[in-house]
Amino acid sequence: MFKYFLSKSPTFQSLRLIQTGVQGAASKYEKAYINGQWTSAISGKYFEVSNPSNGKVVAEVPDMGVPDAQIAIDSAFSAFQNWKNTTAKDRSQILRRWYNLLVENQSKIAHILTAESGKPLLEAKGEVVYGNSFVEWFSELSRQVRGEIIESSVPSKKILIHHQPIGVVGLITPWNFPHAMIARKAAAALSVGCTVVIKPAEDTPLTAIEMIKYAEEAGFPPGVINIITSSRDNAADVGKLLCENHLVAGISFTGSTTVGRILYRQCANGIKRLGLELGGNAPLIVFKSANLDTAVDSALVSKFRNCGQTCVAANRFLVQEDVFDAFVEKLVSKVQLLKMGDGFQNGVQLGPLINEQQLNKVTDFVHDATSKGAKVIIGGKPANYLGELFYEPTVLTGITSDMKVYTEEIFGPVISIIKFKTEEEAINISNSCDVGLAGYFFSEDISQIFRVSKNLETGMVGVNEGLISCAEAPFGGIKQSGLGREGSHLGTEDYTYIKYTCIGNLS
Ligand SMILES: NC(=O)C1=CN([C@@H]2O[C@H](COP(=O)(O)OP(=O)(O)OC[C@H]3O[C@@H](n4cnc5c(N)ncnc54)[C@H](OP(=O)(O)O)[C@@H]3O)[C@@H](O)[C@H]2O)C=CC1
Ligand SMILES: O=C(O)CCCC(=O)O
């Protein structure tokens, strides 16, 4: 079957690399990495990873469960005893070596990423550059984490403050950014002296495994970085163990709010440190003063990055009535030019959805909206002619507050447009949900820019900009979008605790 696929697929060259292991790319059977050893599951079981563009199997990886995860935790705990005592300079240098290797191999990593996620190759390359930037950032930040000495009100005392690594951290990551989410979490944790057990998503473990090959080459000691691969059948049990095991000090998770809540509960008994990057429902507001061309171009980037499967993707478009028709016309004229298809084909801008669950969710949300009166301007149906998991880029108008596209994140290539009259109305609609990750608005009115930025109930705001993520900025949400911030100089806080030392009886 694999042979058939290779001979038919336009992605022949890239996948040939994956099958044969040429250039060190993923081979048909991959292994997980625990305590510096490439290893199979204790059960001997594997699960398949397939390309969502065509359903063909790309590779098989170990299906690890609780016993494997326990070994990984023990290894990480044992490695922590030495890693926590390394100097910031040592950690910085190893991270830098990892970064250099990731950069040297970024094209190969991007090919693997496209093969398992369906993401267009150009976008996969962009994600690898983006993910690598976190490794570079934290290799530099490692040496900048400083303590303080505070003057006491008692002359014979000194107050010292240190930031110390919390210990072993479990990193549970999603399929939508298989490289960047691991890089953003792992580099931060490792830079301050924590050790990690990574559990990537079932759909996209190959990019993660490839990244760890370069971590090994960079010289991280055994046990400092561990990766356990699990099928969806094992994810909940492995997650529970990571949350509840007393050797694990904290969890960092990116994914759905539903799973985030489960992890929050499971971490409660052990009062574990918890970083949560959960779902959003981002408003994108176009005010009448906006430059409409900027608004349209930025909206397309925000919405269609990774085919809409991004937690910061614009979810509800709010357009002021004065510019509604002009905006919709410009938007649709660009949406109809978007090229969807196999991520390895030249010029493709949109790939498939990751799996059947996502396809069903998008199909259901659009059906729900149209059955309640929404109008399909373009798209509105699966693109079966391209493959089983493709959905046409879609624009809907006539959106009302009872529709799922209004109340929940769609995670797909669907734009839902709502008409509003006043700024107050736009703010009220934007804030009328219990999540608050990103929000975007377009305006040339400086007072309005400050006012709206202040009033949007989100952790991040893009003003006249649709792409706001970068290593230097704090990424994170408020309300039920999560806890903590990733990236930026604040990105190590989830992985350190503050040690206060009082030195007394000084003469
Ligand atoms: N904020 C974000 O960036 C993301 C948001 N989402 C949202 O979530 C929806 C569903 O996507 P989905 O893939 O199901 O996201 P999940 O939250 O289920 O998956 C994210 C990660 O958590 C793992 N996981 C799943 N269940 C548990 C559990 N009980 N304990 C510990 N880990 C667990 C998954 O493993 P496995 O893959 O094996 O199931 C994966 O590694 C999307 O439609 C979207 O709305 C999804 C991905 C990212
Ligand atoms: O969508 C997500 O799951 C988070 C990553 C997106 C980004 O870093 O911009």
Secondary-structure blueprint:
Elements (H helix, E strand, L loop, with lengths): L1 H7 L3 H9 L11 E3 L2 E3 L6 E5 L6 E6 L3 H18 L4 H17 L1 H12 L3 H21 L6 E4 L6 E8 L2 E5 L7 H12 L3 E5 L5 H14 L6 E3 L4 H13 L3 E7 L2 H12 L4 E5 L4 E5 L5 H13 L9 E7 L3 H12 L20 H16 L3 E4 L15 E4 L6 H4 L6 E7 L2 H9 L3 E2 L1 E5 L3 H10 L4 E4 L14 E2 L2 E2 L12 E8 L4
Parallel strand pairs: 7-8, 7-10, 8-9, 10-11, 12-13, 12-18, 13-16, 15-16, 18-19
Antiparallel strand pairs: 1-2, 3-4, 5-6, 6-22, 11-21, 14-15, 17-20
The structure holds NADPH dihydro-nicotinamide-adenine-dinucleotide phosphate and glutaric acid.
Gist of the model:
By secondary structure, the chain is an alpha/beta fold. 39% of the residues lie in helices and 21% in strands.
Structure description:
The protein is α/β, with parallel strands linked by helices. The protein has two domains: 22-278 and 485-497, 3-Layer(aba) Sandwich (Aldehyde Dehydrogenase, Chain A, domain 1), CATH 3.40.605; 282-474, 3-Layer(aba) Sandwich (Aldehyde Dehydrogenase, Chain A, domain 2). 39% of the residues lie in helices and 21% in strands. The protein has helices at 2-8, 12-20, 66-83, 88-104, 106-117, 121-141, 180-191, 205-218, 232-244, 257-268, 292-304, 324-335, 356-371, 404-407, 423-431, 446-455, and strands at 32-34, 37-39, 46-50, 57-62, 148-151, 158-165, 168-172, 195-199, 225-227, 248-254, 273-277, 282-286, 314-320, 375-378, 394-397, 414-420, 435-436, 438-442, 460-463, 478-479, 482-483, 496-503. The strands form six sheets. Strands 14-15-16-13-12-18-19 form a seven-stranded mixed sheet, sandwiched between helices. Strand 8, helix 8 and strand 9 form a beta-alpha-beta unit. Helix 5 packs across helix 6 and helix 11 packs across helix 12. The chain starts with a helix and ends with a strand. Mean pLDDT is 94; it is low at 1-26. Bound molecules: NADPH dihydro-nicotinamide-adenine-dinucleotide phosphate and glutaric acid. This is Succinate-semialdehyde dehydrogenase, mitochondrial. Its EC number is 1.2.1.24. It is an enzyme of class 1 (oxidoreductase). The active site is at 277.
